[in-house]
Design a protein that fits this description.
Length: about 260
């Protein structure tokens, strides 16, 4: 059993972590990537993995018997690239992709985005400088990191563009608006991961920083677990448990044996 030592956890918010007990044999960790585990960057490919983080995640997975997973809007392949050679269990593209941590096989749980929808989204982006469209196969990410003032108008226009495609939804994230299959979310991703042998019967702890993480946070709570949040565009410092991804990384490291 590992008890959180608050002197090892800098810049937390509400103090909910104080006294929280995390049993490595009874809990499962689910962690968002951008804005939670890694700091935001000007473009998706510019994110930096801090030295020692892969080693920490490896130790964490060993400590928790493999019950450590990434839940992200990114593709599974992106997670593998960032944290190579480590391969954790991953739910990607808001639940539309999934991979267990053992054999490395990625399951596509949703079909590809129709060409017509991709074209419509790209047309919206072309009219607004600074907007980047990322094709994720079963989803699209429209990044406004370099044009944050366009967020509201961009979301409205994308909602209109989505009109003919009833099976897709607009979901907001941190500096990004995702077009994803309506039947999938980070909550369905967490539910899929909880069926894996390493996760079954454990108390889920979900850590996220934006609107897209809230379904997974609620799913963890419904399963008797807890959701922890990171301050940023969505969660205010007063509402958050962590102020920065650095404090998340430090907290995770504190869960590993010395």
């Amino acid at each position: 059993m590992y008890r959180l030592e608050m002197q090892d956890v800098p810049a937390t918010g509400t103090g909910r972590l104080d006294g929280l007990e995390v049993r490595a044999d009874a809990c499962a960790l689910f962690i968002d990537i951008d804005g939670t585990l890694l700091d935001m960057a000007p473009t998706p490919d510019a994110v930096q993995v801090p030295p020692g983080l892969v080693a920490t995640l490896t130790d964490l997975s060993d400590t928790f018997g493999g019950a450590v997973a990434l839940i992200t809007g990114r593709r599974v392949a992106d997670a593998d690239r960032f944290f190579a050679p480590l391969k954790l269990a991953v739910s990607g593209v808001h639940g539309a992709e999934a991979r267990n941590g053992r054999d490395g096989g990625t399951a596509l749980l949703a079909g590809l985005v129709p060409d017509g929808l991709t074209a419509a989204v790209r047309d919206v982006a072309k009219a607004r400088p600074g907007i980047l469209v990322e094709d994720k196969g079963s989803g699209l990410a429209v990044h406004y990191r370099n044009a944050p003032e366009q967020r509201t108008a961009l979301k409205l226009e994308l909602g209109r563009a989505l009109g003919p495609w009833k099976g897709f939804a607009v979901r907001t994230g941190r500096k990004v608006i995702d077009i994803v299959p309506k039947a999938h979310s980070k909550a369905t991703g967490l539910a899929w991961l909880m069926t894996l042998p390493e996760f079954q019967g454990r108390r889920p702890i979900m850590i996220g920083d934006d609107h897209g993480d809230e379904p997974a946070i609620r799913a963890a709570e419904r399963l008797g677990g807890i959701g922890l949040t990171v301050a940023g565009e969505h969660f205010t410092p007063e509402r958050a448990d962590f102020m920065t991804p650095a404090s998340v990384r430090c907290w995770l490291a504190s869960l590993c044996p010395p």
